Model the fold of this input.
Amino acid sequence: MPPTPTRPPHYAELCGLLKEAATLGSIGSLLGWDQETYMPPAAAGHRAQQQALVAGLVHERQSSPRVGELLQACEADPALRQDPAAAANLREMRRDYDRATKVPTDLVAELARTGSLAQEAWKDARARNDFPAFAPWLTKMMTLSRRKADCLAPGSPEPYDALLDEYEPGMTAKEIAAVFAPLRDRLAQLIGRVRASGRTPDQSVLKIRTDPQQQHRFGELVLKAMGFDLSAGRLDVTTHPFCSGMAPGDTRLTTRYTGEGFLEPLYGTMHEGGHGLYEQGLPKADHFGEPLGEAISLGIHESQSRMWENFVGRGRAFWEWALPEARRLLGPALEPVTVDAVYAAANTVRPSFIRVESDESTYNLHIMLRFEIERALISGDLRADDLPGVWNERFESYLGLKVPDDRRGCLQDVHWSFGLVGYFPTYTLGNLYAAQLWEMINRQLPGLESDIRRGELIPLRDWLRANIHAHGKRYRAAELCQRVTGRPLSSDPLLRHLESRLAPVYGL
Done:
């Protein structure tokens, strides 16, 4: 390998300061992971103070005048401007610095503190089906989020854009709505054709009870086949599954087991495993704390998780390999199960109250609902107290189901409790990116389906690592999509994918 070029002193110092901030941030990530997995409930109050302190320290370092001085010096350096990697780093550092300096440290700390407390309030309210107990916390978090948006984009007619930009740089609410509206119409047409088919696939596979500990072992087996390095990560259990790529060599995954069914926990594990593979594939060893060592957007991040969960995990080829392994680990209850039965159950259209349990075809309708509601909460068009009624009305309109209670309605997601406003749309963007990438992958890896049928999933991981993960933030999401697939993002590949999955199940 050629020697690593020597960095100019001002660039080396800048990267060093940001690495220090990222190291502090990784401590906050560890505190958050612990809160979601093993922290005793009585520790919630002190954990909120810990999170506020760490978030404030990180923000102080990211927004320090010295970082601004070094950025200016680096941006004026002709050699750095001509280095594509350094130029990409500096472009994203400037964006991050400008955002950080617009938000005061006390607001960052208050968001972290209130978010930590609101998260515990959400857990309790969800368990007791008590939305009124959570409503004041939701109001606080939306008020703080609006303050943040006002700091980032004073006077903006669409404050939501400033929050969305944190997760999907460059995207606006207007652009999201323009993508979602036609997609919703086409999904409604597809679901209408499914209903008109008159077919009701056997879903008994979904109810087969298996031991959670064995499900955990099965999940770890699949993760290893996917190429996830369990010596540099781990899989734990929580209420709301997530992935935290907190540092080089430390990527934490969580999943959940509901007591019945083995497909949902497996897909949750594969979903978070896709996120984990992205985190492990980023060049963090050389660029921790720098944009080149970070994911470009949550839409691209979500494309990785949805690809493994849906495009691989719900495919017939995958189950030709995985079903014998499932029988071996999960026991005799799976002996009579066939590949056809699993495939049909995994690709059934069954509108669900719970987003994370929904089928692949109706999932995006859940996301569109949340996008519209959080946009209204931030604009002030919707009060937190009125959320259940609006949620239930739109849910019935979109999915044809009457919501029985708030636990299975507006209390089901953790996101708003700690201020992740603008996050939800990236799930559907991820589905769109995944479908478009999947078509290119199959053109470039013509033997992929045969590989999957044998349980050889590493070629897919390696393609993703080379074409997506290794770039970090070198390219923005839209540019990366164009570079890899040769065209801008479109909903057509996702509709083609869904139709190909549903056609054999419903005779479309």
Observations:
- The longest strand covers residues 250-255.
- The longest helix spans residues 9-37.
- The chain has a mean pLDDT of 93.
- Residues 9-167 form one domain.
